[in-house]
Structures are given as C-alpha cells and as structure tokens.
Structures
1.
Amino acid sequence: QLQLVESGGGLVQPGGSLRLSCAASGFTLDSSAIGWFRQAPGKERERVSCISGSGRNTKYADSVAGRFTSSRDNAKNTVYLQMNSLKPEDTGIYYCARDRWGPYCTSDVTISQYDRWGQGTQVTVSS
C-alpha cells in the first residue's frame, strides 16, 4: 500500500533547528514531486516547500525561504525538510504529500493535486 510517514517533529526553542523526514513506501519516490505542508491552529493549510522527483528543483513559501531546505535521498525513498532559524509562527502540524501530477513542482498549489498524505508530525517552536 502506498504510504507516507513523517517523523522528526518536536519541541524546539526559537532559533533552533529540526529535520523532518518523510519516508515513502509503495511507489518510487523519484516519480513524484513531494510537498511539505503545515497547518497551525486557526490557519489554512500552507505549502511550505516542494521538491521535484529528481531533487533538482525546489520551491519555498515566502514565509520559510532562506530558512527551510528540502532534499531527497531517493535510494532511501525519503524526503527531508531541514528547518533552521525556527520561529514561533512556524508551529504547526507538518505533512508531506505526493503530487499526483508527476515529478515537477508547480508554482501554484491546488490541494487536490496532492493525492497521498502522511499522518503529520507536530512541530512546536516555543521558549
């Protein structure tokens, strides 16, 4: 069965770092762009990053650009999100999701283009 599982969330102080992992099974990871999303209480779900199937291209939301980096290890069927200089407003549940349209990141985001989602991992940035 196709599955995505996030891990690596936790509690971190402002300015700290976390690395999230998204492990895939049931499909070849490099066949799909993978997006990272987050959702904070009272806010709509936001795509924070996308990484293409090859890892060649990435896109980031303005709110995280320069602080977050997405990468791949396709041999391990895993996508990562390195989060640095974390801020309290980064707090939320983080999800990885597969783009059903293929391996290329899109500039515009349609939630329905992501057809497989992990269960989410909580990230809390607080002193």
2.
Amino acid sequence: QVQLVESGGGLVQAGGSLRLSCAASGLTFRPYGMGWFRQAPGKEREFVAAIRWSGSTTIYADSVKGRFTISRDNAKNTMYLQMGSLEPEDTAIYYCAADRRYFGRNGYEYDYWGQGTQVTVSS
C-alpha cells in the first residue's frame, strides 16, 4: 500500500525557516514525480513546488520562488521542502504528492497524497 507521510510542520515566526519532509513507502515503481501543495482554511489547494525523479528539474509557484527549495533523496524515499523567509500567508496545511510519471502544477494529476502537516507562521 502506498503511503506518504509529511513531517516537520510547526509554529514559526515571520522571517523564520522550516524544513518539511515527506517519507514515501510502497512506491515500488520507478521513476515517480513528487510535489508539494498547501491549503489554507477556506482556500483552494495551491501548488507550491514539484520535482522530477532525478531532481534535475524543479518548478515553483511564483509566491514561493526564491524562498523555498524542493529536493529529494531517492535512496531514502524522501522529499523535502526547505522553507525560508516565511510569511503569515504561508500558513496552511502542506501536503506531499507523488505520481508514477507526472510532476507539475496540477494537483489532480497526482495519484498519491499524504495526510498533511500544519505550518503556522506568526507575524
């Protein structure tokens, strides 16, 4: 059974940093793309970042470009999101996603999702 588990969320002051992790299990196929999404209460799910299997290609939402860095360690079946210069607008539940082939901005293209981890940024 495929399972994605996010961790690393918490409370941080504006301007601070957090690193999120997404540990994947049950994804026996290779390669697979991965991405990060977030959702605030009353808001639509929003694309954050995505990364190709090899890590050679990454894409970011304009709102986080230059502040967030996505990476992955396939030997550990883990994806990361290093978040810096955090702003209150970054407050949301952050979800990781994976797909056999797809990586990109469209959340509906991903087949597998984690349960999310809460990130709260105080002003």
3.
Amino acid sequence: QVQLVESGGRLVQAGGSLRLTCAASGGTFSSYQMGWFRQAPWKERDFVAAITWRIVSTYYADSVKGRFTISRDNAKNTGYLQMSSLKPEDTAVYYCAAGGLLDRTSQWEYEYWGQGTQVTVSS
C-alpha cells in the first residue's frame, strides 16, 4: 500500500510559478508510474502529466506543455510538479497518483491517490 500526500498549493498571481510536491510512503514508489491530475469545481478530474520510473519519459496534457515540468526523486520517494507561467484556468485541486499501467491519462488506471492540494491562480 502506498500513501501519497501533496503539498505546495497556494494562491499565486497569473504568470507566477509554483512547485507541488508529492510525498510517498508505505510502499515502493519507484515501482509505479506517477501522474498528476487536477479537478476544477464542477469539472471532471483531468490528466496533467505523468512520468515513468525506469527509462524516464514524461507526458503532458496539451494545456500545460511548455509550462509544467514533472519530475521524481525515487531515492526520496517524492514526486514534483513544477508549474510556470500560471494561468487562471490552471486553478484546481491538484492530485498526485501512482499507477497508470495501461492508460496514463485515465484516472481509472491509477491505484493510489493523494487527497489533493489547492492551486488558485488570480488574474
């Protein structure tokens, strides 16, 4: 069993930067693909980014390409989402997840989830 805890969400002005952290415990974090999802009020939970753990590859939603960078430090059981050039439409609760064996963009393919951290981008 893997427990995930997100942190780093806060209010930030448009154009600013923010780094989210996903701390894992209770399992072997490096055995899992890590993903970030976000959910705005009254919206579906959408894929943001994912990173593999062996030969490292990263994947991004079109809406965040060029602005967000996903990374992980397996030795520290920690994942990160570096967000730059933030826009008001980035406002959401951000969740980290572990799994994504078949479809890394689908929330239903991830086994473990954090409880989310709120990111609010003001215009």
4.
Amino acid sequence: QVQLQESAPGLVKPSQTLSLTCTVSGGSITTNYFYWSWIRQPPGKGLEWIGYMTYAGTTYYSPSLKSRTSISRDTSKNQFTLQLTSVTPEDTAVYFCARTNSAYFETDYWGLGTQVTVSS
C-alpha cells in the first residue's frame, strides 16, 4: 500500500520561504502514470490545490500561486518537495501531499497533513 508523509509541522515568518517534503513509501514517484500533488486547507476553509508533479517530472501550478510555487523531487529518496516563497499569514494552512491516478484523475492516497503557521 502506498503511504505518504509530510515533513514536520513548523512556523514560518512572513516574507520567508515555506518548504515541505513528502516522503513516499510503497511505490515509486517515477512510476507511470501517477501525479504527485500538494494541497492545502486554510483554517475554516476548503481544500485548495497548489500544484503537482507528474511521474516524468513535469510540474503544474495553480494560477493564483504559480508565481510563488515550485515543486521538485529527489528520486533517490523517493521524495518530492514544495517551496512557497514570500509567504504571508494567509498561507497558514494544513498542507497535504497526495497521489493522483492520471488514468482517472482521482486522488487515491493522502498524507495525514502537516500544520504550517505563518507568523512573526
């Protein structure tokens, strides 16, 4: 069974860069035809898609966050990483990594989520 785990919760100061790593076990992040996504949920709000990386390494980002978002990966560690620059308190949220099956565009596996608070 595929499992995903986000790096530990943390505090980020305004204007700094948020960085989170998702560690995947039970499956390779390079296996056809899966996408690896970052999703967040601000307090009291719904889920917001941030972006994803395909099995081939191609990235796609939400238009509203594209200018500040970067997703990368380390295939030797079976990990993928989110970086979000110039953060503000509105970036405070629970951040999830997840896998999507590209054949059906269904997100079938999720990490438990990690709390990121942006505060001075």
